[in-house]
Amino acid sequence: MGEEETKKTELKPESASSVPNQPPTEPVAVEPKELEKQDPTNGVTREQNKVTPPPVQKVDSAAKQESKDLTDRDSVLARVETEKRLALIKAWEESEKTKAENSKKASTEAQLKRIEEKLEREKAEYVERMKNKMAVIHQSAEGKRAMVEAQRREQFLTVEETAEKFRSSGHYPRRFLSCFTG
Q1: Which distant-in-sequence residues (6+ apart) come within 8 Å of 25 by Cβ?
Q2: What is the residue-wise DSSP string for the chain?
Q3: Given pLDDT bands bounded at 50, 70 and 90, which one contains residue 47?
Q4: Global model pTM greater than 0.70
Q5: What's the pLDDT tens digit per position in 122-154?
């Protein structure tokens, strides 16, 4: 029995690459005696009529290298695509940051300009108020000068009248030489 078991030939299914989408089948055991039976149709023994399975194709290193290159190419393309996407995202992010900084800078400059304009207006108003005050002060000073001048003229007239009175009467004024009197 041991010999019969070793003589059993196993038929191997065709490789999976030659028939797509078909699951591999299990090997079938065939008795050697059955192989010797003749085929009644053409008189050839089954052993001669037996279909030899195609030899198992060994994937050579070139094919492996080619598939490896394709896999590497796909991974490199995927990596390049990812890097490109990340670069675009980074560029967009930098653009948005720049926009934000520029708008912040612009708003700060606009605010500074508004403050400067406000200070210029306040300065102009202050200068105007000071000019008005100076005009009021000069006006009041002129009024006071005019009053003082009028008072001086009055006093001068009064003194002249009094002197005329003393000349006409021939008396001397009592206060005139008060330092010499006693």
Answers
A1: 13
A2: -HHHHHH-EEEPPPPTTTSTT-PPPPPEEE-HHHHHSBPTTTS-BHHHHPPPPPPPPP--HHHHHHHHHHHHHHHHHHHHHHHHHHHHHHHHHHHHHHHHHHHHHHHHHHHHHHHHHHHHHHHHHHHHHHHHHHHHHHHHHHHHHHHHHHHHHHHHHHHHHHHHHHHHHTPPPTTTTTTT--
A3: low
A4: no
A5: 999 999 999 999 999 999 999 999 999 999 999
